[in-house]
Amino acid sequence: MSQKVFLVGLPGAGKTTLGIQLADHLGIPFVDLDLEIEKHAKQSIRSIFSEKSEAYFRRLENRKLNDVIKELTTFVMATGGGTPCFFDNMKVMNAEGKTIFINTSIDKIKRRLQQDTVRPLMQTKTLEDLLEKREKQYLQADKTVTTKQGLFELFKKNSS
What we know:
The protein is of the alpha/beta class. The chain has one domain: Rossmann fold. It contains eight helices and five strands. A five-stranded parallel sheet has the order 2-3-1-4-5. Helix 2 packs across helix 4. The longest helix has 18 residues, at 54-71. It starts with a strand and ends in a 6-residue tail after the last helix.
């Protein structure tokens, strides 16, 4: 059975952690879109941003998203925080599978990211700014969850 699950949300919302757990629970592969981009580019996202540009990164992100969709029939994907906001990425993800917005509180994300120096946009924008800019796209997801329990509830019926 083909199943594609896309987790969207702010940086630090828990997409990767929850994605790994959900993929394990469902017995399907986990894909971290940011890691796929880094493998392809042979450099970190931070260095792509600084040496090339955000626009270059977003084109690469769009290409890798579409590559994974074509190459794999079943997966749980942790997208980058901005993935749904560029090109037709959110529309494509909604058409290809189930999109889930991991809606974690700003305070909880701030605690998680206090020491984070890796995420490029965290150096220049506040979480509030990012949420204001991206929430419209995030809310286009099929479902919104705020907890691991809520996420797993969505898939309870599907796992036998």
